[in-house]
Amino acid sequence: MERIQTALAKARAARERKLEAVGQPSSAKSALSGHWLDLAKLSLDMGVLDSNRIIAHNSTPGSASFDVMRTNLLRTLRLNGWTRVAVTSPTAGCGKSTVTLNLAFSLARLADIKILVVELDLRHPSMVRILGARPGQNFAGMLKGARPDLSQIRRWGKNLAFAISSNAFESPAELLSASRTADMIDEIEAMLRPDVILFDMSPMLVNDDAIAFLDQVDCALMVAAAEETTATEVERCGKELAKRTQVLGVVLNKCRYLDRNAGRAYPE
């Protein structure tokens, strides 16, 4: 574990040096940059979000669990100087994309930080559908190109941006493991200077797509589905994640049997 932590620290330091060389100094990280403000705007229908269980765009009892997750995540990121968070699951159908989006909208209610959501579940991109966004964004195709194209990243409100794709991509592992992809992500981070980047990854136990990219993130969250994900799957996924990055914890999704007080911010 100490060797992993040392390797991660070295990788992060190298990225910081690259960011400072390409973009603004790290002290200016939270300022709204011209590149950020120039991003095309993304229009969303709140009714569509609610119907797809994206509820954290408003502060409600239902969003409380994501707000707690947000606070704990930010504390860890700031304590370690991290920005990049992978969200994955052992298998398909655990709801990791829904959790990622709810966490992103919860973070976006904090006006002093910028959040970039990057969809890297390239075999089965779902965020265009979940968000009810117009098809057309092709972030995966941009990664295959020669240079970053910020027109493939759209901004909702002042501080939340989405790098998503309308179409599936063949052979994502080869793309995600390419050094050019890592460089392009670095360049995008240098230009936009987000405080938090949430990477929606493929399930860990289905293919090697997520494994191909995990050395580019600082930490990871695992999403498991109550009554669906087995303890063995959680253990296998956790071990694979721990080989490559820091594991922040497991998010239990689709839990139908919550305590009646769950989600309350304060007792009545």
Short key terms for the protein model shown above:
single chain; 268 residues; alpha/beta; Rossmann fold; eight-stranded mixed β-sheet; 11 helices; 8 strands; 40% helix; 15% strand; globular
pLDDT averaged over residues: 87
Strand order of the largest sheet: 1-4-5-3-6-2-7-8
**How is the main sheet built?**
8 strands, mixed
In angstroms, what separates the terminal alpha carbons?
Answer: 44 Å
Tell me roughly what share of residues is in helical segments: 40-55%
Work out the strand percent: 5-15%
CATH top level assignment: Alpha Beta
CATH superfamily (homologous) name: P-loop containing nucleotide triphosphate hydrolases
**Uncertain segments:** 24-31, 260-268
Total helix count? 11
CATH topology: Rossmann fold
Radius of gyration: 18 Å
Number of separate strands: 8
CATH architecture: 3-Layer(aba) Sandwich
Shape: globular
Structural class: alpha/beta
Helices and strands, in order, run as: HHEHHEHEHHEEHHEHEHE
Number of domains: 1
Describe the protein's architecture and organization.
- The protein has 11 helices and 8 strands.
- With 268 residues, the protein is α/β, with parallel strands linked by helices.
- Strands 1-4-5-3-6-2-7-8 form an 8-stranded mixed beta sheet, sandwiched between helices.
- A hairpin with a 3-residue loop joins strand 4 (154-156) and strand 5.
- Helix 1 (2-22) crosses helix 9 and helix 4 crosses helix 5.
- The radius of gyration is 18 Å and the shape is globular.
